[in-house]
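Weekly puzzle thread! Below is a chain. First person to post its structure in token form gets bragging rights.
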Amino acid sequence: MSISMIWAMDKNGTIGNNNSLPWRLPRDMAFFKEQTINKTVLMGRKTWESFGGKSLPQRKNVVLTRDPDYIADGADVIHRLEEGMKLAEQEQLMIIGGAEIYKLFWPYADELIVTRIEEAFEGDTVFPDLDWSGWKPVREIQGITDEKNPYCYRFVFYERV
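Winning reply:
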């Protein structure tokens, strides 16, 4: 099938702060849900724990961790990249974070879905410094700014060249 990666980042590549998002953009959260609903979402342990250890509804949740004893109630737990690749042979896999997981799956991804926020935020996690030369933007949707979504942002879809 395929591997897609989805994330939001600010203009400096920041993707997180204290294991949560540094901004509040409800329209981005709705977009994330729309893109991942009824699909398999794969995340690292820290991302899973940032959701309070609760599965995302209407999605098959998979947690990738090195800890052989880790239990994630409501999610399947895997321990190796190869297990994730095997899933991707059977269904569309949505990689949803964090930075280490994006870096691990980067060479195998078919599609990137990036919310680009045109602001700078304080954060302790940035998207990995990876080679974008093999990617091209194929579609862009300008985000709607309003009182609940105060930052300028856009959704950009990339495909492998």
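Puzzle host: Confirmed. Bonus trivia for everyone else. The mean pLDDT is 97.
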